[in-house]
Amino acid sequence: MSTDGSFYSIIDYTVDGTKTQHELVEAFVELQERWVRFYPGYHSARIFVSLDGSRVYNIVRWESEADYRHFEATSDTAGRVAAIRGALDGLSGKAEPRMSGKPHYKVVREVGPGPRRA
Amino acid sequence: MSTDGSFYSIIDYTVDGTKTQHELVEAFVELQERWVRFYPGYHSARIFVSLDGSRVYNIVRWESEADYRHFEATSDTAGRVAAIRGALDGLSGKAEPRMSGKPHYKVVREVGPGPRRA
């Protein structure tokens, strides 16, 4: 059961303030543009920042799990992983991953506006 | 700078398996329907589950931060917090929050499909 059929990868970091937060956002944009966005079935990467400057999420959406698996199987994983490591090493502050397990997701429920349930 | 002007609350839990994961999803749906979805500016709650059964995200979107602040100021926070606690207590397994700081977010960048950046 998936409400939109899409496959999501959720990348999740804590950071030590707004400067590192901004740098990590720009690093995620560059990583998408250099390593991900040109594969078939890539839909979008939306980058969320917490208003308190402590956290960054990157939610990458693929049209289907099959598209993601094709990306995984055919892309240069070693190059991409090295680029991610280089981007993290280049930050002026600290960023710590908060992922647990494989960051592979689907949307199972969506609740829109409506009357209060009694 | 926000790409869509929206305000997001990101709720983030680890769980001890697919049974608890499913129960927590249903609890989040019920909490939205009883306590949140009828306030002005409520846009949606999208509930993500990890394919490995270990994690649940609930991403609640408001049209604007002002709409969220109005909800915060005018809703029954004590009742809602008690309902959340009751829902968590009613799970058959364990669920642990992974939030850090206030879970208030905006989207600052979105990367769509495109050519590889050189």
From TrEMBL, chains A, B:
GO terms for molecular function: monooxygenase activity. Keywords: Monooxygenase, Oxidoreductase. Residues 94-118 are annotated as: Disordered. InterPro entries: ABM_dom, Dimeric_a/b-barrel. Pfam families: ABM. Residues 12-74 form the ABM domain. Signal peptide: none annotated. The keyword Oxidoreductase applies. This is Antibiotic biosynthesis monooxygenase. It comes from Pendulispora albinea.
